[in-house]
Amino acid sequence: MKRITLLTGLLLIVGVVNAQQTITTWLDYNENPVREVNAACKKIITLSGDTSTTIRMIWFQSRYESIEHYCNGFPAGKWLHSINGKVLEEYDFTRVSYLSPSQIKERKVTDTAGIIPASFKGGEAAQLQFLKKHTRYPQIALKNRYQGRSYISFIVKPDGKLTSFGVIKGCNPYLDYEACRVLKSMPKWKPATSNGKPIAYPVIIPVKFTLDDEEESVIDVETGGWGVWL
User: Is 133 within the bounds of a domain?
Assistant: First the structure.
């Protein structure tokens, strides 16, 4: 009986090892592959099963380290950036949802008869001012000059509260994260109405992040309106 138990345990260990794969590459300052002796950093990719991936970057001279997790190709879990073990930035992607095609389809409005869409109180100009005031360009995005437009969807409830935030189309995980964060901080909206009665209503906001060529600290956040996807 002990022999059978031991054999079973060994098979389980082998199964775990086979389910996880680690790939290490050595990179120069431009993140191009080089020999270990010439490397400026080490990149470690850990694959767990078919869905989970962890990417760890370790820069030798600055002692800078980053850890990123993905599940099914989408950001997941906590992402960390640190120097000498001291955390500089932390992103909790359990707070950010990337919507599937079926979830996006559920939010489409095909019949708008009698409906007045939900809107930011004060109009689009007030909304743009709010976003510019409260958006913080992530430091890692500044460093790498990440730019683009994140399309975020949410539901405006009949009482004007915002809920069910999700990324419909992302541009970069750090920018998607910030877009969700700042939109979640918005005050209540003026709810949509159907024949005069308040209703829940889906909204899409494209948040654009751009950097000035001469001054990296300049942030330009734009919106493309709050119309639904038809």
Answer: yes
